[in-house]
DNA sequence: ATGAATGAAAC
DNA sequence: GTTTCATTCAT
């Protein structure tokens, strides 16, 4: 199987095209080579198990600026049936911390306030909808199950406590009062709500809080944008009509990307309005390149109080899988993008960070014209028990710019088709498929058809990494930050010594460091920034942190601050000082792990 | 599309 | 302080 299996990989490279030639927008005009290498790995037998895509990087440390995007539409081959039951349960279980039992069961009953609802079970009260789609759905809002007649792509607001309460009670009241009008139901439930004791209300407040958190995680960068009031709308409309007529002849939408607009809706709208699929794809690809700082890490079991931190957990933290999937499915588009780039991979042993692709809904701050960069690492493994292929399960092999895609060993499953957007690179792309039974490797190498100098724009990624004097052992820790400063001064990066003694030679690694206020006596403490609006501080003593420092001008909503107990490492040497390099801190989806104290040891033992 | 409720967010 | 919009579904 091994040698002749090479032939089983069909690789066809489309003619490379630069993206968005017509586009005047700098962001979209990053001069990527949209070399779409399509590699079809036929499912000839049930042997192919693992497909690895990697760049052949002789020295990835020197190749800042490389990035790779793999994308697919869910309807394509990879998105076959997916067992959502596990996923749903997982998401549900987290939700049910409060309601404690299954869907539709009333909170009141659980806390013994009254029994009128005791046996009511509704089909999908919590918006948890046993859906037939092949993608896991996280019950973001109840509305997810209902098709929105107006604008299906619009992200609904998170429900407030009363709306949640009303939604839960609705069916009950309706059942007890046949023929009752909804308006009256609202009245009744409002009265019920007002008369609920504080502890019950608190439950719903908590649920609303969870909902808001989840909503933010699933819709990074979402901003509530109510339409202007009717009066102001009229007024504004008149003004704008005037201006528009004066200044602008009409152009095609494609020529006018809403690059100044921070509103996702508009971007999505804009993309939706573009008729040509190829155009759409190009845009999406390009956008994806600018959006690599997305973070599924932030989406990892957002409701769990203790989730596996990639930096702390061992290499198979399987719990990451499903919620990460779920977040992708909440996108309004059908496109999934997986991307990673090699930039910050400095040596083969370095623990990198999980980079997971985004859906279009995650695109944010695209107005910031920075070259996409890094992320990476990786650290989760497909649950071995999952028989059905989960298109979202992938992994990068440790320390290399590789991506593993697991293919189910199901004979009937379709072949995997990968569309690979290769950046301007002189490096060949390597696709490998490994057969499981005999662990043979089949390979196909695709030479880039053209070689163009990557025009890396002046930005942080071009910063030279100064290799400091090699230090050994404990001396490699970054300096402790003073405890009397407030904010993360420069989240971008400081070049610090790579404490990984196992890398040969010890190289540099990019850190973002933080000055953490109220540091606890110099004890281990770090900030995991999963989102500019969601910051988690791990501390050895939770009561010692007064404030979570902000590092941008973004408003940190206190309700999204968390302080968690420092997780116990399984092995002490797993503590590792690393952070991701973040090109655009205004972006959602970045994450940044900051240790105020370094420890010896290598990552990912 | 509207209403009936409450509350969150934006203006 | 005012407006919109989250939910529901009959009208």
TrEMBL record:
Residues 114-125 have a biased composition (Low complexity). Residues 155-223 bind DNA. Residues 126-135 have a biased composition (Polar residues). GO terms for molecular function: DNA-binding transcription factor activity, RNA polymerase II-specific; RNA polymerase II cis-regulatory region sequence-specific DNA binding. Keywords: DNA-binding, Nucleus, Transcription, Transcription regulation. Residues 1-22, 114-137, 221-263 are annotated as: Disordered. Residues 155-223 form the HMG box domain. Residues 237-263 have a biased composition (Basic and acidic residues). The keyword Transcription regulation applies. One of its GO terms (cellular component) is nucleus. Pfam families: HMG_box (PF00505). CDD domains: HMG-box_ROX1-like (cd01389). Coiled coil: none annotated. PANTHER family: FI18025P1. This is HMG box domain-containing protein.
């Amino acid at each position: 199987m091994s040698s002749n299996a090479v032939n089983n990989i069909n690789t066809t490279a489309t003619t490379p095209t630069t993206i968005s030639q017509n586009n005047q927008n700098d962001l979209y005009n990053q001069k990527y080579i949209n070399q779409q290498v399509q590699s079809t790995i036929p499912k000839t037998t049930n042997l192919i198990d693992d497909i690895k895509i990697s760049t052949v990087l002789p020295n990835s440390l020197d190749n800042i600026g490389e990035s790779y995007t793999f994308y697919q539409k869910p309807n394509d081959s990879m998105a076959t049936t997916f067992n959502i039951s596990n996923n749903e349960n997982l998401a549900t279980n987290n939700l049910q911390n409060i309601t404690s039992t299954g869907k539709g069961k009333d909170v009141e009953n659980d806390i013994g306030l009254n029994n009128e609802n005791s046996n009511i079970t509704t089909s999908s009260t919590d918006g948890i909808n046993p859906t037939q789609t092949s993608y896991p759905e996280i019950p973001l809002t109840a509305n997810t199950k209902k098709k929105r007649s107006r604008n299906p792509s619009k992200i609904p607001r998170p429900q407030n406590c009363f709306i949640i309460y009303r939604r839960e009670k609705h069916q009950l009241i309706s059942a007890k009062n046949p023929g009752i009008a909804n308006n009256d139901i609202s009245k009744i439930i409002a009265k019920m709500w007002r008369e609920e004791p504080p502890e019950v209300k608190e439950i719903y407040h908590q649920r609303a809080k969870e909902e808001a958190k989840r909503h933010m995680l699933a819709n990074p960068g979402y901003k509530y944008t109510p339409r202007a009031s009717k009066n102001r709308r009229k007024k504004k409309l008149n003004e704008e009509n005037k201006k528009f007529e004066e200044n602008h002849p009409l152009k095609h939408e494609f020529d006018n990307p809403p690059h100044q607009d921070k509103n996702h809706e508009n971007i999505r709208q804009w993309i939706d309005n573009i008729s040509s699929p190829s155009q759409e794809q190009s845009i999406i690809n390009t956008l994806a390149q600018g959006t690599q700082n997305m973070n599924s890490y932030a989406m990892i079991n957002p409701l769990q109080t203790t989730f596996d931190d990639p930096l702390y957990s061992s290499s198979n933290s399987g719990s990451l899988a499903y919620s990460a999937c779920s977040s992708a499915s909440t996108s309004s588009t059908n496109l999934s993008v997986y991307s990673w780039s090699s930039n910050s991979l400095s040596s083969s042993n370095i623990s990198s960070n999980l980079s997971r692709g985004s859906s279009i809904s995650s695109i944010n701050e695209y107005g910031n014209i920075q070259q996409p960069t890094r992320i990476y690492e990786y650290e989760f493994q497909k649950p071995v028990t999952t028989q059905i292929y989960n298109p979202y399960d992938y992994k990068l092999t440790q320390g290399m710019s590789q991506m593993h895609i697991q293919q189910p060993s199901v004979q009937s499953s379709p072949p995997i088709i990968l569309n690979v957007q290769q950046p301007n690179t002189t490096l060949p792309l390597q696709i490998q498929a490994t057969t499981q039974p005999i662990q043979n490797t089949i390979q196909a190498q695709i030479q880039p058809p053209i070689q163009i100098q990557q025009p890396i724009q002046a930005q942080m990624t071009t910063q030279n990494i100064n290799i400091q004097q090699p230090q050994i052992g404990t001396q490699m820790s970054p300096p402790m930050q003073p405890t009397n400063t407030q904010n993360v001064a420069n989240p971008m990066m400081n070049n610090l010594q790579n404490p990984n003694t196992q890398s040969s030679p010890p190289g540099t690694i990019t850190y973002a460091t933080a000055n953490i206020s109220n540091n606890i006596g110099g004890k281990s403490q770090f900030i995991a920034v999963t989102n500019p609006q969601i910051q988690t501080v791990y501390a050895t003593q939770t009561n010692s942190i007064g404030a979570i420092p902000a590092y941008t001008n973004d408003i940190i909503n206190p309700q999204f601050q968390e302080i968690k107990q420092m997780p116990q490492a399984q092995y002490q040497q797993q503590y590792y000082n690393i952070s991701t390099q973040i090109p655009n801190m205004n972006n959602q989806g970045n994450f940044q792990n900051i240790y105020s104290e370094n420890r010896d040891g290598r990552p990912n033992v």
